[in-house]
Protein: T-complex protein 1 subunit epsilon
Organism: Paramecium sonneborni
Amino acid sequence: MSLAFDDYGRPYIILREQGSKKRMKGLEAYKSNILAAKAIANTLSSSLGPKGMDKMLVSPDGDVSVTNDGATIVEKMEIQHPTAKLLVELSQSQDAEIGDGTTGVVVLAGKLLEQALTLLDKGIHPLKISDGFDRACDVAIKHLETISEEIDIQANEHEALIQAACTALGSKVVSKRKRELGKIAVTAVLDVADLNRKDVNLDLIKIQTKTGGSVEDTRLISGILIDKDMSHPQMVKEVNDAKICLLTCPFEPPKPKTKHNINISSAEDYKKLYQQEQQYFVDMVKLVKDSGANIALCQWGFDDEANHLLLQNNLPAVRWVSGTDVELIAMATGARIIPRFQEITPEKLGKAGSVKEVQFGTSNERMLVIENCQCTKAVTILIRGGSQMIVDEAKRSIHDAICVIRNLIKDNRIVYGGGSAELACAIQVLQYADEVSSVEQYAIRSFADALEGIPSCLADNCGLNPITSVAQAKARQLQENNHRIGIDCMELGTTDMKEQRIYETLSSKKQQIQLATQVVKMILKIDDVIAPDDY
Ligand code: ADP
Ligand code: MG
């Protein structure tokens, strides 16, 4: 696009390849953007809450995944429309920052856009809508803080943390096992948490999936589990007081580069070359052993020749250790990652209490556990399940739970779920709207309506009548001045979310409302879309 001037100095716009571009301006642009983004939100809305539906997504090469996780759904939907992509990013930024609440944030953005559309139809200027939403958002956030409660994360064997984890897991495919999985997640996080600094390094929790068994067989292993075994079946199965040599160079003689030739003209020459090669192996193994290492973990492979030599020299070794495992092992055992054999020195070895092979179930498959690492504690959650689809979804769900627990360790304030927090904010925002005399009051009221959209969506998804349930909940919140009344999704007979112990972190709710408002404001600012014709 470029700006040009005609003979009279009047400006006009030149679009490159005008014929092949599509251009939308003004109201038409606003509306088309909003409709595209709303389509995404509508798809997700049926997945919200404990009775939300799952989505089955098939990738172009036929991989099937079944998931309830908002961020995963939008990521796999392969969305083309540029504004709809903003919602994908919205879900992902919630995922990156908070980890949970990735569906809710998109649904809320969708409700806000729906309201914006009606306001535009009424003839209200997009900037006024934006301003109103912004002010309402501030009010909602402030109110969230006043209704939040601090919980004691230590009390009662970390019961509050377990409950929060259960709330996060309750809407997932693995919800039947939420209590067990929640406990595993809490123990894992507390194992690696630094409670004084209120910090958790989630890199120290490795989540390993292995198909087979069932979800109940999921367990926590105190140590690093790697899905590999010793490179030779006759090597020792357990190394105690391990001194680990962590190699990122291959156990093989240097290969001639492409531009070099080796001319072998006689049997003599061949023998020499062979001997030289053998010498390389011998030297390499010697370098490792001389440093005092009693096990070698190698990011690369090595051939049978080397494997045999390692066995002969009593040096147990593991090959094809993945890059992320190498980093984790380095962090936990204090090992330096060694890229060249010449650089091996005793100080660079990592130390761990033991490295041993373990076997799971009745299958022959073995894995290695590195326990009692010298530097930091690292743990592994081994997820089992009948199929790849199940273990993948379980992994995503446990990730959500772990994030919730980490967030609570960082900031132990919670609000109650089941739509009660959103409803309480909506009531507050409505009151605020009455104090505003300018046009923005319409937008502020609409913001409150959008917030009510969350409990209404939850009710809808569990087969309740959304209008009556939200109206009843709202009436009770006002009458009893009780901000904990929400939607009784599981039909437990009480709408008080404190009694149901549905805990959500304050940080997650705040982030949801803020991010959703931000994206909607951004979409409302776009009044001109210039795109190739095939969009
Ligand atoms: P997200 O990806 O946004 O976390 P979820 O599918 O996990 O989406 O649903 C979260 C919503 O469901 C929250 O609003 C939460 O308060 C609500 N929720 C979760 N468990 C319950 C429950 N047992 N009863 C009522 N509401 C619940
Ligand atoms: Mg959730």
